[in-house]
Design brief:
Elements (H helix, E strand, L loop, with lengths): L2 H23 L3 H19 L11 H24 L2 H23 L6 H21 L8 H27 L3 H24 L3 H6 L1
Helix pairs in contact: 1-2, 2-7, 3-6, 3-7, 4-5, 4-6, 6-7
Length: about 210
């Protein structure tokens, strides 16, 4: 891993934690996370003239990833409604790398190097410890919040595998990401109108 990739991953992790915190503190988490998804889709529109249209074999991965992201957002909202951010966020994110690694070995037949496996195990263990420390009272463990957090991690691992496979088939990873973000944003807008009605649009605009 180059130094540039290392810092890019750290920057992505920091931004991810920030937007998750914003979803947690916002009064209407469904509209908040929908707005962020629309923002990603809008940013991806700028990239469209510079990337290729995905080939036919790439679209099943994009479609699958859109549904995995839908499940991810649904369970994430449930986790933040049911539990504390300090407990649900580390649990949701910490178990995902381990599930993705196991899924990678089973689905795409990729076995990480021993050192990578050790790193994944330490990462997952560390974030699980953070999650337990984030619980105010472990004797009153919120099983509902834990269930939503683990469900979130399953969807994270699922779209990680789908995106990894789809991006490799695409002409470029940027092409895959741009079209995924746009399709995801369109689907999020449809769901928003279906579940909240057209009256939600002025709220999003505000």
């Amino acid at each position: 891993m180059t130094l540039f990739v290392f810092f890019a991953v750290l920057a992505a992790a920091a931004m991810h934690a920030i937007w998750n915190a914003l979803v947690k503190v916002h009064l209407d988490r469904f509209l908040s996370i929908t707005l962020m998804t629309l923002g990603m889709g809008t940013a991806a529109l700028v990239a469209l003239p510079f990337v290729e249209v995905p080939k036919a074999e790439v679209w099943p991965y994009i479609i699958a990833s859109v549904f995995f992201h839908m499940g991810y957002r649904t369970f994430l909202i449930g986790a933040y409604k049911a539990g504390d951010f300090a407990q649900t966020y580390p649990l949701a994110r910490g178990t995902a790398p381990l599930l993705a690694a196991i899924g990678g070995m089973v689905v795409v037949k990729e076995v990480p190097a021993p050192l990578a496996i050790l790193g994944i195990a330490l990462l997952s263990a560390g974030t699980l410890v953070m999650s337990f420390r984030g619980g105010a009272h472990l004797e009153k463990l919120n099983l509902r919040a834990v269930g939503f957090a683990l469900g979130t991690s399953i969807f994270i691992a699922s779209y990680t595998l789908s995106d990894g496979s789809g991006a490799r088939l695409a002409a470029t990873a940027s092409s895959y990401a741009a079209w995924l973000f746009i399709c995801d944003a369109l689907w999020a807008l449809v769901l928003c109108i279906v579940f909240r009605g057209p009256r939600s649009l002025p709220v999003l605009a505000a």
